[in-house]
Write a structure and sequence with these properties.
Shape: globular
Strand content: 25-35%
Number of helices: 11
Bound molecules: flavin-adenine dinucleotide, FE2/S2 (inorganic) cluster
Radius of gyration: 22 Å
CATH topology of the largest domain: FAD/NAD(P)-binding domain
CATH class of the largest domain: Alpha Beta
CATH architecture of the largest domain: 3-Layer(bba) Sandwich
Length: about 500
């Protein structure tokens, strides 16, 4: 997504450039059509192409220009949702399968980096989990035991703080985690896919996906792709149905990048146990300084509009623990999809034909979940047995944490009340470069006032399932508080599940 569209710029967008590929300009037939050129789509394309499958990738923006360019790229088998919780929901055996799959994903990334010689600063390092100041360490002891039961027997509890870190107190140490530059990795993956004969078209928006004996994919510029199988790796599936969007919730998460002197902080992945938690890593690719990357302050998409305050809180949190940090060099935000049972949804799309696959529900761990997605979908398409198939099956019967399911869906139901709220009148004065939803009769209008004071009007009704979109001043976008569809200030869709834009309202 170009910075000019009003979005913030991540450190990766600032330090890498991936050339656009040509848009699709003709009808075409292939073995497997993959929609999405983020980590999930390109890993799938790479692994299938490696097996001799003819792959075609379609993406509506550039390579990596979805959530992958906004990640902080921790590669971890220390799950965000914690092994204690996972074990409660899925049992010990499945928690162990999940642990093994994330370990395998880091190994898979390392194998690809080495065999394709991708220069993306991949490295192995420790992960440290600690509790916020003044809180009990009990959670660490319980998590240690659960991680061991899940097979991660090399996780240890430590009382001495490692050199060049900060006073995090007692903490868990997860060895052999990883980090890399996500866009340089994708650049290498895309090049490797093409070297093997795969085809990638960017700037090609897909309008519809239909399974059947042959899958049919229709693009917004009027072309049709037919394929034996289709993989929808659009982060939130654009061919969504209630079996998916009722079981995952979109959250906005924030990141700041601060300048720190070189080698002030040991390179490692740091996480605390707060809810929402803070996540920290270091980028040392710049010549004269390192960048301390600190994330957190999550909230449900579209349900807060205080990005400035959240960046400020992250900065304060970071400065307290890392006093050597100086200037804020970057701030950006992105979206993660939290499933009700803490695991991604990867496999055949429920209530569809057998040749339609999805990868979604990153649960804040989309680097590894996306890679697991590629490995699992490759096996499902090629008919190879895979031990993770049931664990990640999007149609899995265990609804997971029922309380979480009810809570998230009650929250969505509450958002429809926007239709009943009185709302602002449409003659309210507006500042330039801001947006506001106003009421005109029974209609709800999303008004964006541009830099010159010109008002652009759109229907505020989300084309997915009819919630009212909210203005996001941090990214200058319209965000749907129900299932996370997002639209730029002029209404073009930038995040699914909607594949359609907001409807334009002609000026009177
Ligand atoms: C701030 C932040 C920090 C994070 N930190 C971590 C972390 O430390 N570790 C970790 O593992 N994960 C992390 N994540 C999560 C991770 O970044 C994402 O889950 C992951 O990048 C998602 O990859 P993806 O390939 O599924 O989707 P995306 O990267 O979003 O790619 C989706 C693709 O689909 C395409 N697309 C969408 N709709 C259409 C359409 N209609 N037609 C054609 N193409 C379409 C887009 O153009 C894009 O190419 C973080 C996320 C955020 C936002
Ligand atoms: S994303 Fe579902 S109604 Fe908007």
């Amino acid at each position: 997504m170009p910075a000019s569209s009003g979005t913030t710029v991540s450190i990766w967008m600032d330090t890498a450039h991936i050339p656009d590929r040509q848009a699709l300009t003709t009808d075409v037939t292939t073995d497997v059509c993959i929609i999405g050129a983020g980590i999930a789509g390109l890993t799938t394309a790479y692994l299938l192409a490696k097996e001799g499958t003819k792959v075609l990738v379609l993406a509506d923006r550039g390579v990596g220009a979805g959530e992958t360019e906004r990640t902080t790229a921790h590669l971890a088998n220390a799950l965000d949702d914690r092994y204690v919780e996972l074990e409660k929901i899925h049992g010990i055996e499945k928690a162990a399968l999940a642990a093994g799959s994330h370990t395998a994903a880091i190994n898979q990334i390392e194998t690809i980096v080495r065999s394709e010689k991708i220069d993306c600063a991949f490295e192995r390092l420790n992960g440290y989990l600690f509790v916020p100041e003044g809180e009990s360490n009990d959670i660490l002891h319980r998590e240690l035991a659960a991680a061991h039961r899940a097979g991660l027997t090399d996780v240890t509890i430590e009382t001495r703080v490692p050199p060049n870190t900060f006073d995090m107190g007692v903490h868990l140490q997860f060895p052999d985690q990883g980090q890399f530059h996500p866009l340089l990795y994708l650049k290498g993956l895309a090049d490797a896919v093409e070297k093997m004969g795969g085809i990638i078209h960017t700037n090609t928006h897909v309008d519809s996906v239909k399974g059947g004996e042959t899958a049919v994919i229709k693009t917004a510029n009027g072309h049709t792709v037919t394929a034996a199988s289709v993989v929808v790796a659009t982060n939130a599936p654009i061919n969504d149905n209630a079996t998916i969007y009722t079981r995952q919730a979109p959250y906005r998460t924030y990141v700041v990048g601060l300048k720190i002197p070189k080698k002030t902080l040991q390179k490692a992945l740091y996480w605390d146990t707060q809810d929402p938690y803070h996540y920290v890593r270091v980028d040392d690719s710049q010549k004269n300084h390192d960048v301390l990357i600190v994330g957190g302050e999550d909230h449900k998409t579209g349900q807060a509009n205080d990005a400035g305050l959240r960046y400020q809180r992250l900065e304060t949190w970071a400065r307290k623990r890392f006093p050597a940090a100086t200037k804020v060099l970057y701030h950006w935000s992105g979206q993660v999809l939290e499933t009700v049972d803490g695991l991604a949804m990867i496999g055949r799309k429920p209530l569809d034909t057998d040749n339609v696959y999805i990868i979604t529900g990153d649960s804040g761990m989309g680097m590894t979940h996306g890679t697991i997605g590629g490995m699992l979908i490759r096996d499902l398409i090629l008919g190879t047995e895979n031990p993770w198939a049931d664990l990640y099956d999007p149609g899995r019967k265990t609804i997971g944490d029922l309380k979480e399911f009810v809570k998230e869906n009650a929250n969505v139901a509450g958002e429809y009340a926007d239709w009943l709220r009185p709302g602002k009148h449409d003659d309210v004065p507006m500042k330039t470069e801001t947006g506001m939803v106003v009421r005109r009769g029974t209609k709800r209008i999303a008004v964006y006032c541009d830099a010159f004071g010109k008002k652009n009007e759109l229907s505020a009704v989300c084309p997915h399932k009819g919630c009212i979109v909210h203005w996001n001043s941090g990214e200058k976008s319209w965000d749907c508080p129900c299932h996370g569809s997002r639209f730029d200030r002029y209404g073009t869709v930038v995040n699914g599940p909607s594949s359609r834009n907001l409807v334009m309202i002609e000026a009177d």
